[in-house]
Amino acid sequence: MQRFNNFSLKQYNTFNIDVKAKEFIQFDEPKEIRNWIEEGEFNNPFLILGGGSNLLFTRDYDGSVLYPAFKGKKIVNENDDYAFVYFAAGEDWDQCVEWAVEHNLWGVENLSLIPGHAGAAPVQNIGAYGVELSDLVETVEGVYLETGKKFLKKKDSCSYGYRYSIFKGPLRNKVIVTGVTLRLNKKPATKLGYGSLKVEVENMGAITLQNIRKAVINIRTSKLPDPEEKGNGGSFFKNPVISGNFYKNLQDKWPEIPGYFLNESNRVKVPAGWLIDKAGWKGYKSGRAGVHDKQALVLVNNGGASGLEIADLAMKIKEDIIQKFEILLETEVNIL
Question: Where located (predicted)?
């Protein structure tokens, strides 16, 4: 366990916001969490920080930032069809995807290049190109912060939904995830329902695991800025889910509005990026903050922006979308 005071978080959030934590505690092994709890500091203000890709800091953090830095990638069990793969919470998520592809394991390739750590992936239920992590989760491991006891939750007890899990709801700030075990396919199991992805893969000449990963990376890098070059948190807003009837009303005014019906329900997911783009925000700049010129769903730090500048821009966009479409956008990024 390593502890630091008045610690800069600029390198620990992908918006590159220059704020400080009163205290920064890095856990290198899960057992160190229990030691910290036994010191009696659990009741102090704290924030659990992973890769910092879903956080927008608007001020210094007057408490303890808890940083799980656990490492490890391994196959823990397997049969003829599946390999059960454990990723420790502190592992870079895209490096986990790369590892799976190198081991010819199918399932996570569509989730390539999503920023963040493996521990946050089952918490956020990350997803892209027709795949959500909950499709693959076998178990999630962690520690209860109040007692220091370990837990092992199977997928069915994680309350998964769109960008939601029990760790964002009832167990928010009550646990630290230490790792996740995924069930990956040993045999080809492609998900190429998104047209742009299918076209990109087919242009490569063969539908292989490696080509699918390359295709996802190509598409994401063509649309999304590298956080190392321009601070951002990926998709800033969730795609809103509306009723089928309301969607039909919107089609009367905007016939080209895209929508994806959810299973057999009368609910439709509408791309937030399309709404923001249609409202004229793509490429917009407000001081040092802005909207990415290739993907309207991404808010960016053009250099030296404060978290408040970006949060203010997000609020203006939300208000405008309500006025134009009568849809309330929810942020995917957590604003602190």
Answer: Cytoplasm
CB-based contact 28:317 (threshold 8 Å) = no
Is 124 in the same domain as 180? yes
**Per-residue pLDDT tens for 25-37?**
999 988 888 888 8
Question: Do 321 and 259 share a domain, yes or no?
Answer: yes
Structural domain including 246 reads: 231-335
E strand or H helix at 261: strand 260-261
The kind and range of the H/E element at 301 are strand 299-301
Do 64 and 124 share a domain, yes or no?
A: no
Q: Is 332 a catalytic residue?
A: yes
Given the residues 34, 132, 163, 286, select the one marked as catalytic.
Answer: 163
Active site residue 235: yes
pTM: 0.81
Tell me the average pLDDT of the chain. Answer: 89
Single out the catalytic residue among 53, 64, 165, 235.
235
Number of domains into which the chain is organized:
3
* 222 is a catalytic site residue: no
Query: In this structure, is residue 266 part of a structural domain?
Result: yes
Residue 43: pLDDT band by 50, 70, 90 thresholds?
A: low
Q: Is residue 219 part of a domain?
A: no
